[in-house]
Amino acid sequence: MLRRLLLVPLLLHAAAAGDICIVGSGISGSSTAFFLSNYTTVLSGGQLRVFERRAKRRRRAGGRLATVTVAGDDFEAGGSIIHPRNLHVRRFADLLGLAAKTNGDDDWLGIWDGSRFVFQTLRPPPPGASWLRRKLHALLNTLHLLKRYGLSLVKMDRFVQDMLQRFLLYYNGFESRPVFDSVEEMLKWSGLYDLTRRTLEEELVDAGLNSQTISELVTVITRINYGQSASISGLAGAVSLAGSESGLWAVKGGNWQLAAGLLKAANATLHLQEGIDSIHYAGDHYVLKSNKGHEYDCEATVVATPLDEVNITFSPAISISPRKMQHTHATFVRGLLNPKYFGLSSVSDIPELIGTMEVPEIPFSSISILKKYSEQDMTYKVFSRKKLNDSLLDDIFSRRKETIRINWPAYPHYEAPEVFSPLILDGKQLYYVNTFESAASAMETGAVAAENVARLLLARLRLPLPSRLHLGADDPDQRADL
Ligand SMILES: Cc1cc2nc3c(=O)[nH]c(=O)nc-3n(C[C@H](O)[C@H](O)[C@H](O)COP(=O)(O)OP(=O)(O)OC[C@H]3O[C@@H](n4cnc5c(N)ncnc54)[C@H](O)[C@@H]3O)c2cc1C
Hints:
Layout: H1 2-12, E1 13-15, E2 20-23, H2 27-39, E3 48-52, E4 67-70, E5 73-76, H3 87-96, E6 100-102, E7 109-112, E8 117-120, H4 131-149, H5 152-167, H6 183-190, H7 200-206, H8 211-226, H9 234-242, E9 249-251, H10 256-265, E10 269-272, E11 276-281, E12 286-290, E13 295-298, E14 300-303, E15 313-315, E16 325-337, E17 353-356, E18 366-374, E19 377-384, H11 390-396, E20 397-412, E21 430-432, H12 443-460, H13 476-480
Parallel strand pairs: 1-13, 2-3, 2-14, 3-10, 7-17, 11-15, 14-21
Antiparallel strand pairs: 4-5, 6-9, 7-8, 11-12, 12-13, 16-19, 16-20, 17-18, 18-19
Helix pairs in contact: 2-10, 2-12, 3-10, 5-9, 7-9, 8-9
The structure holds flavin-adenine dinucleotide (FAD).
């Protein structure tokens, strides 16, 4: 026993000061590693270590980017769609040689109010329809939407484009983009901060949208993308609305490959199934203790996971703003929807994407078809705020061959005005990427926040940075196809 006690600290005190340690292997942690390795070759002689506590079932990097297998097919279970103007993620995919698959732009959407479909877009033409027929369908669909929502559609688009234009500033070169040491400063610089102070609904009313568009179309989108109503804060709402635009894509084979690929490209050491239990500041470095009993000395530490439901002990203690995570239950069902549940006589009359209004009695936020094996056999994804029990699922579905449930601490529960935790948790070398998630949670926002944290960390460690950086937004060739 004595021998064990003496040996353990010697054997398990693994790394040397000079290492930079990152807690979390999701897109925020992996892009922090990537940007750190990209921006400097001089990491004080140390290495990049990334810790991932993820349990046995999913032994890989990615965090909230993960696939689920239903009937032999892999589907995105968490973060699934990428906006065409998400320049970091697009660049990551190109750099890693990952192929993109585009999302169809012509979903047949039905808006469910708990007793009927109050609005439906037009049924898309059958697969293999001619180019002309598809174009005609798109035109008729636009007219159909305009008839119901009028100019509010144009105003909504203007609101989203304005947010996107401001967001593009985060891709400016180093010369015209400062390093930020707080989220507030970062958002104020691009002109996005005010959007976090008021609800989406308030912003849209001021932008001139009518109440029907907000209670139907806008609410459907915020419920699908953030599991919340139009009373979420304005920036998260604008990001969510951008997620309904055309040109969305995903990585073929799973978005998690972005995280895995970035860690490889950064030459980071990935400690899989090794959770960090405590982070202690020891005068001139941090000591990270893992659930395997190992200790790591780190010159700087980056926390790349939301701290709201994670139990890491910090000494000295840190102070973060209270924040609730919104849980989204993703239920994957192979089977067939029950038309009677929707007051219909045939399953072929049920829209392919069911969005919902903010009615407390509706037990789900959305239902979408992921794959059609035949007219009688499909795989669906259901999002809900609470777990869907078997008897409820047996009402909604007439047949279920396979059911998989995932309970995600998915994104922050957005409440305006948002309050942000510090980016530098202790005034020294302890950084927190996921405080930015209180502005908006997405793969790209994770990457943008990570890029700033990487620059901030290198600047504070006084390591040299490249003098120029071009990520595309200020490159006219790239801007042309945005
Ligand atoms: C259902 C759902 C749908 C979504 N849809 C989209 C979408 O369509 N498009 C989009 O852009 N975004 C979407 N998002 C949001 C997006 O997935 C997240 O914003 C993003 O993946 C967060 O990445 P992250 O690296 O910041 O955090 P995470 O992915 O959560 O990574 C943090 C990692 O840290 C690990 N960890 C935690 N504690 C410890 C510890 N103590 N020690 C070691 N490791 C630890 C966790 O296991 C996790 O792997 C969705 C999210 C969900 C859940």
